[in-house]
Amino acid sequence: MSPFLQDLPEPVAAARGVRLLLWRDDLMSPDLPGNKARKLKYNLREARRLGHGRLLTFGGAYSNHLAAVAAAGRLHGFTTVGLVRGEAAGAPNPTLARCAADGMALHYLDRATYRRRAEPAFLAEMQARFGPAYLLPEGGTNALALKGMAELAAEIRQHVAFDALAVAVGTGGTLAGLLTGLRGPETAVGVAALKNGGFLKDDIDALTRAATGQVFSNYALATGYHFGGYAKYSADLLAFIQQFEDRHSVLLDPIYTGKLLFGVLDLIGQGHFAPGSTVVAVHTGGLQAWAGWQARFGGRR
């Protein structure tokens, strides 16, 4: 079996006759792991094709996306500019300090200004201010990102026949990309990491329509595992992450993958997956979030 695939012998899965596997995309690269690298792959090629040497993007103060773009710039020879939601407050947190160490120029936008990040006039202002740049949306989700994520479904299929893929959902780009890479009876489940995530279905459908002209029906969006909202948590979630690491020697993060695996195991227990199914949950990385977690809350757990 691939070194990126790991069996998860969970009692609830055994009881339901479901084989549960974990795809370790977090192990793909020490510098640029997980779904962010896949989302950036074809965007970086397009930036090169268009003759850009600078990447400009947006994100919150603990953004995995900002960290990934900064690392990609260092690795691939781009200068990078990160427009950060919120006011600068003292020393940068671990995420932004890492971004700066990777060469990213950080600029802070108040929340009202940040809400304009998709407006063409505002983007033109930013281009005028920071110079010509290849624009990456918040979270890195666009049609080229979907192309990179579609390749993951094919990679997993080379190693194991699966019935369903399961992934955490933030902007919807990772799930949308996986959908475009599914074949035949394969399905997907997205576990929303934010509260009131029902709107994400429309976003996912719009993304796949724009990328392929199709809207897919072979997926489910689980919205009940957000633990209070984006970047929110509970003692139960933290205990689950610790227990999961104890059982499988795999560290999850509290923003995305912890909620994903909690949700997948609960869905298995509810009978969401048919007996005999093989379900592959995708560990999309994001472990840099723990440094910020420690800075905010005083400990990893």
From TrEMBL:
Pfam families named in the record: PALP (PF00291)
Alphabetical keyword list: Pyridoxal phosphate
InterPro entries: ACCD_DCysDesulf, TrpB-like_PALP, TrpB-like_PALP_sf
Stretches assigned to the Tryptophan synthase beta chain-like PALP domain: 13-285
Single GO molecular function: D-cysteine desulfhydrase activity
UniProt keyword Transmembrane, yes or no: no
Record-listed N6-(pyridoxal phosphate)lysine modification sites: K36
Cofactor: pyridoxal 5'-phosphate
Active site residues per record: S63
Protein family: Belongs to the ACC deaminase/D-cysteine desulfhydrase family.
PANTHER family: 1-AMINOCYCLOPROPANE-1-CARBOXYLATE DEAMINASE-RELATED (PTHR43780:SF2)
Protein's name in the database: 1-aminocyclopropane-1-carboxylate deaminase/D-cysteine desulfhydrase
Organism the protein comes from: Hymenobacter nivis
Species lineage: Bacteria, Pseudomonadati, Bacteroidota, Cytophagia, Cytophagales
